[in-house]
Design brief:
Layout lengths: L1 E6 L7 H10 L6 E7 L5 E2 L5 E2 L3 E2 L11 E4 L14 H9 L4 E4 L1 H8 L13 H7 L14 E4 L2 E4 L4 H11 L5 H13 L5
Parallel strand pairs: 1-2, 1-6, 2-5, 6-7, 7-9
Antiparallel strand pairs: 3-4, 8-9
Length: 193
């Protein structure tokens, strides 16, 4: 099974990763979604869901094989302790393991320079610059719901479907027409008016 790690914090935005994790975890995809956090203590999402992390950054083995790191947004990114994931993000990008970040997770990436050399998006350019004083990637900012550039996928907080579509495409879970039909179904529903 190909592992996809989802970094969770207290206050993580559960809905921002839910479309894609449900698709990845389906039987037959050859993917397995697992969670990682700063420690093994249960984390409570913004929606009140309690999740026990599979892995802790404190004892994480960088020899573990995984194919992507997902960073959902949420209130936890304002807490310095969660920035410990910076080491894992660096490891991923140095080893061409895709990193997918949405909402405030993009602000975290921006503050540590991870966005500077990639086309990217976020909640807005002013929001990104305010929340990430060390951000220097203005010329690569694109005003889109989700942007995929090499090993980095970024999305704004209202772009969970577009974010999921970019991840499914990057991991080749769905492609072409099948991917567009999936996206259309969840974006527009069964009933077209």
């Amino acid at each position: 099974m190909k592992k996809v790690l989802v970094f969770i914090t207290d206050g993580f935005a559960d809905w921002e990763a839910s479309y894609v994790t449900a698709e990845l975890n389906k039987p037959g995809t050859e993917f397995q979604v697992q969670t990682i956090a700063i420690d093994k203590n249960p984390k409570v999402s913004m929606g009140g869901l309690t999740v026990i992390p599979d892995y802790s950054l404190q004892d994480f083995s960088f020899s573990l094989e995984f194919v992507m790191l997902l960073l959902p947004g949420g209130t936890g990114w304002r807490e310095e302790k969660n920035h410990q994931v910076k080491k894992l993000v660096s490891f991923c990008l140095e080893n061409t393991i895709p990193v997918a970040a949405i909402c405030d997770a993009t602000t975290f990436l921006g503050n540590y320079g991870f966005l500077d050399q990639h086309k990217h998006t976020g909640n807005s350019l002013p929001y990104l610059k305010e929340g990430a004083p060390n951000y220097r990637g203005d010329e690569n900012y694109i005003e889109e719901q989700s942007v995929s550039d090499r090993c980095l996928i970024t999305a704004n907080g209202s772009g969970a479907l577009e974010f999921s579509r970019d991840i499914l495409n990057k991991l080749e879970v769905l492609k072409g027409k099948e991917l567009e039909e999936w996206y259309d179904l969840f974006k527009n529903g069964f009933i077209k008016r």
